[in-house]
Amino acid sequence: MILSALLTSVGINLALCLLFFTLYSILRKQPGNINVYAPRLVAEGKAQQRGRFNLESLLPTASWVKKAWQPSEDELLSIVGFDAVVFMRIITFSLKVFSVAGVLGIFILLPINFVGTQLSEDSSDLSSKSLDSFSISNVNDGSNRLWIHFCAAYIVTGVVCYLLYYEYNYISSKRISYFYSSRPQPHQFTILVRGIPIPSGSTCSETVESFFRENHPSTYLSHSVVRRTSKLQGLISDAEKLYRRLAQLKLKNHTSQRFGRDGFLGIFGHKVDLLDHYEKKLEDVEHKVRLEQSSLPGKEVSAAFVSFKSQLGAAVALHIQQGINPTEWVTERAPEPHDVHWPFFSSSYLKRLIRTLLVFVACAALTILFLIPVVIVQSLTNLEQLETWFPFLEGILSLYVEILLHNLLNLILPKVKACHGFFFFLHKIMHFSNINDKGMCNMLVCRTVVSQVITGYLPSLILSTFLSFVPPIMIMFSSMQGYISHSQIEKSACIKVLWFTIWNIFFANVLSGTALYQVSVFLEPQKIPSVLAEAVPAQASFFIAYVVTSGWTSLSSELFRLIPLLCNFFKRVFSGKDDDEFEVPSISYHSIIPKVIFFGLLGTTYFFLSPLILPFLLVYYCMGYIIYRNQLLNVYAPKYETGGRFWPIVHDSTIFSLVLMHIIAIGIFGLKKLPLASSLIIPLPILTLLFHEYCQKRFLPIFKAYPNECLVKKDKEDLNDPTITEFCENLVTAYRDPALSMQYPGSTDGRNSPLLHSA
Question: What InterPro entries does the annotation carry (predicted)?
């Protein structure tokens, strides 16, 4: 039953993937869809909208696969940036790991598991086998064949550690090379200073100027004081929306389209001339903006962006304590100007501290609430146990089957009587079940199919649906914590989503599925290996179905881009034209990287327990390599660069996966009555953690700050750059709040265009 349910899930998702791939190949060539499937190319002027429809565009082609495969890593770096290259290295790292694990698991461990007789005495009858027959649970207790699993654990650990070292070394060296080859950037010469002590009778700007001219006379260049502009930013956003609405109305020649209602959604309220109505509203907003701008000098925050003449000067000021009081003149690295999260500066230190505590509580509450769908999902995976606990469900399922039989089978079967194979299949089932009544056989077949769909496909689909709401919630939580940049917010959200997924999808499912009454055992750490050894293998079928449902289908949905496609379609249908001012999206690393890492955790822990999961993971990573390359080249554009700072997250989580696998191995060999193997596994987690500590000391500092040697060399190169003088002049205003740079013309008639623009 479990194997049939798994095959049902695989079949459904494989059909969905093929459908999405075919539709994508067709829709990407249709007129009007280039803004959905290649917005990056449109924004860069490398692609244009097709004017008319042709029959050739109805033929699905795989040419996009070749175009996504062709660019080298250096070309990818020049087109999409360093973060995208690191992201693709994460996928290729996973491919390398599970290629080796797949060879060991599929060709060596899987046959050994299958020929075991621990679960069934008859190893020749494949039809009587369940999915557990392909796992280590089927190997006889005390069998010498378990030493092969022991050796596989050591081999895979060595391979993973070698690849981790290689990738860490490669990415860190690539990070230095990218730093040398890049042009001077404002954030490399700037630091953020907070906790500025402002004496009475002086301003924040005067205090900063005096302090840094006295303490950094040879390197100090300029500064930009931060002000509270959250209210001003809201007003400017309202003004921009009104201007765009006015511009659209002025482009329409039909007088009837100028009139509408001024209420909610244009449905309620009085009927007015929309052009005059929006012009009056815009005048009011402009007046409020001018009043708010005039009051900004009194809204200084005790923080400032301080720029220096050299990168070494900025680094010295960053890493040396500036004042006697360590809580004053606190320095931190400045983000890129367009990466600054300006609302952060409108909150006081006490508010940020309270928000951090609230975020911690909210994350804990979300984790607890998410256990509800986990329990529901695990109940669906074990339908027989659910019917035992709640007998009335058996009647509901039988009633559902009867309705389905009446509405489907009795209508479909008479139309397919010519299908000899179908009735041959029914005959075999009747002969196998000793059922002579054809209606009862149909009832059995339908009930089996329904049960397979419920236990195999529905649980992972429900869990994936609930999990899709977590990344935006974590982004909201991280933005409340007081990070000064969008990249820090996304990195924090990535870590939150990752550990939320590991706990709620892996541990919660394992415990609720097979150890619901053994949670108290985890209060005794010495029993954790044995508990995990019993619980984890039993959930293999669920996690295989989860990889197929959440992995394969999410990749197909990423390629198909259904929601942007529908939005683009309705916009063209109801407005009659495309939006020329569309915004090129950026890739959501905070939701994609945790999923890639989590599937790596599943593969690492299950490669010797249930190797059947490995082919599904390899398909996922192969699909992901091509699809994400296509999306990075055609769809997404980077909004900021973190310098590859997502890789340390991948390294740490991979080490955690290895240690978890070692703990499970200790327990599983103990349960299999092979105590010597269990004892010999103990050095593995110790050696892995020592390797992790070495990598932390060897490579992690490079991801935190560039070394002095690199800064001195780059400063010497910058001195010979003819554009460095112009760069320093622009650096003075690089960190000015965008809300302070907005200019407004004196009138709102059509002669002034654009109404709003950045200085």
Answer: Csc1-like, CSC1/OSCA1-like_7TM, CSC1/OSCA1-like_cyt, CSC1/OSCA1-like_N
